[in-house]
């Protein structure tokens, strides 16, 4: 069973130490009650990932673990087969002992668009909400973050992250917790909080913004990336059924509306730093993610529309600062 003891030890003398009053009980309940059918199989695979410490790692310009020269061709093939059990791999790419995991998303492209605009992460405590397999967490670590914590309720993403971490070496200050943000108490402790690709999945986007705010220290920085549409501050798309074949998309605001929501949620210094239409080169099917992808979600006769007739995915990145806490906001 995946253990969280090393995380408890690392935060015991940090700004997150008061989390220890509640977190072990929350995670203990998760371990007792979570019964995902594939989890025992995935944990057996994780236990087979016993490899020497890699001869090189690079989290600054990529997520590269090992030069590819430490393992024989047979060992590489075995490792590739083991990592293949965790398909589909959606966020990446990863290079692990010479094995190129070409994921559905070129998450490095998003990072390259976002990272020039954020406050330097060196020595900061960082939370990544909806972190997926943790690709961006490794890039945050590569920027010198002191602690990186990712949360995502998906057991598959947790196991993908654990696989990468076990091969990279378990001593890095980077941890995945299988939780949703609604399960976190207000910590008021993180220097930087990322929420990328989450807001449109939330039934109550304002509540999500307040939950993000309540994880930040006063003056901390929020990096929010989400689907948007064109329009003024009163423009919000609420899909009737599905959006891009997704049935869990609730609200797509305009950039102006999103900035207003952030202002009402007690953020200041709000600015849009990137606006990008998702391309077929950035999100696509691969050998590591052989299922449907973006091209299947768009109208084949008009790629500017989804198959439902809505505007094709456009993503905005907003950066904002937490104002003084205001617990009576809502």
Automatic annotation (TrEMBL):
Subunit description: Homotetramer.
Function: Catalyzes carboxymethyl transfer from carboxy-S-adenosyl-L-methionine (Cx-SAM) to 5-hydroxyuridine (ho5U) to form 5-carboxymethoxyuridine (cmo5U) at position 34 in tRNAs.
Its EC number(s): 2.5.1.-
InterPro entries: CmoB (IPR010017), Mo5U34_MeTrfas-like (IPR027555), SAM-dependent_MTases_sf (IPR029063)
Protein name: tRNA U34 carboxymethyltransferase
Record has rRNA-binding as a keyword: no
Record bears the keyword Transferase: yes
SUPFAM superfamilies in UniProt: S-adenosyl-L-methionine-dependent methyltransferases
Catalytic activity line of the entry: carboxy-S-adenosyl-L-methionine + 5-hydroxyuridine(34) in tRNA = 5-carboxymethoxyuridine(34) in tRNA + S-adenosyl-L-homocysteine + H(+)
Protein family (similarity comment): Belongs to the class I-like SAM-binding methyltransferase superfamily. CmoB family.
Binding site for carboxy-S-adenosyl-L-methionine: 91, 105, 110, 130, 152-154, 181-182, 196, 200, 315
Assigned keywords, A-Z: Transferase, tRNA processing
Species classification: Bacteria, Pseudomonadati, Pseudomonadota, Gammaproteobacteria, Alteromonadales
């Amino acid at each position: 069973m995946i253990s969280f003891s090393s995380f408890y030890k690392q935060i015991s003398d940090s700004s997150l130490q008061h989390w220890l009053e509640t977190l072990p009980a929350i995670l203990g309940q998760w371990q007792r009650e979570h019964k995902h059918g594939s989890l025992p199989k995935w944990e057996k695979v994780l236990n087979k990932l016993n490899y020497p410490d890699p001869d090189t790692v690079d989290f600054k310009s990529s997520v590269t673990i090992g030069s590819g020269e430490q393992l024989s061709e047979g060992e590489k093939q075995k490792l590739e087969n083991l990592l293949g059990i965790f398909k589909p791999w959606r966020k990446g790419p990863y290079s692990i002992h010479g094995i190129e995991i070409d994921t559905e998303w070129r998450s490095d492209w998003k990072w390259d668009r976002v990272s020039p605009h954020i406050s330097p992460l060196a020595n900061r405590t960082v939370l990544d909400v909806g972190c997926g397999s943790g690709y961006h967490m490794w890039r945050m670590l590569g920027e010198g973050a002191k602690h990186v914590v990712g949360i995502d309720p998906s057991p598959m993403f947790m196991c993908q992250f654990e696989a990468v971490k076990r091969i990279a070496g378990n001593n890095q200050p980077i941890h995945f917790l299988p939780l949703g943000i609604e399960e976190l108490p207000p910590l008021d402790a993180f220097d930087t909080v990322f929420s990328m690709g989450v807001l449109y999945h939330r039934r109550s986007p304002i509540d999500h913004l307040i939950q993000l705010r309540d994880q930040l220290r006063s003056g901390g920085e929020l990096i929010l990336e989400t689907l948007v549409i064109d329009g003024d501050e009163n423009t919000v798309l609420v899909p009737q059924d599905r959006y891009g074949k997704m049935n869990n998309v609730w609200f797509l605001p305009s950039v102006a509306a999103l900035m207003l929501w952030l202002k009402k949620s007690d953020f200041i210094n709000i600015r849009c730093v990137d606006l990008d239409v998702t391309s077929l080169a950035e999100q696509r099917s691969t050998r590591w993610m052989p299922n449907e992808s973006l091209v299947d979600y768009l109208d084949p006769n008009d790629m500017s529309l989804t198959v439902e007739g809505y505007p094709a995915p456009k993503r905005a990145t907003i950066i904002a600062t937490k104002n003084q806490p205001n617990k009576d906001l809502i």
